[in-house]
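I am hoping you can look over what I have pasted underneath with an eye to the fold:
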Amino acid sequence: MKVKRSGVVLILGMLLCSSLIVMWSWSQQPKIRGLLHADGTKILNVANEEVIWNGITCRGLFGYWHYGCEPTYPNADHVRIVREHGLNIIRIDFSLDMAVYGQEPGTPTSINYRPEFWALLDQIVDAGEKYGIWIEFNFSPVNWATLWNGAGFPPWMYDGTWEYGTYYDATPTGMAWAIREFFNTDNPDQDGIRQTYVTFWRDIAARYRTRSYIVFCLFNEPLNTGGT
């Protein structure tokens, strides 16, 4: 079957026009700043306009291996590209072990952060405000901690070497108990770990509380042990 050249040109022209319309529409949308609030089942902005999110999740803040690919860090240019495709939110996964990697352990109320953590978050938040796209900060543990070949909490919190931590063996049973007892506030064994988690979010909130286009997801899939 032969396809007429004019038909191909028409289809390509329609696709090009559609792309231009999408790019024009997002660039023309007003950038309304301020806190969100709920009204029943709806999320509204400060102008009482309904906010409907349509976006993607990306790799972790400092990347991770996925299907044999090299880890790629999200950056400001990725935020721009997502917005140009007509989306209005991007989820950035991170964890406490990413934030303190390579640093000496601090205390539950004073965390030693790696400088790259704040630098990369600042870059992404700046891009979110520039392009009018929401950035979701998503605390996302997998296998709870690096002690169990995952991500979430640093290994020294659970290997017995940190004076404010507690010990669990590096087995699936140890991981299950660590997760269970983290949420058991009647057990003081993980008070130091829980307080560090609270300090982590307080520090993030203090840095970004006056910024726009930020959504805080405090704990993604808290009972996740490797799969949902």
Q: What stands out?
A: The beta strands are 37-39, 42-44, 55-60, 89-94, 134-139, 214-217. Residues 31-217 form a domain with the TIM Barrel fold (CATH 3.20.20.80). The first strand starts at residue 37 and ends at 39. Residues 7-30, 65-69 have pLDDT under 50 and may be disordered.
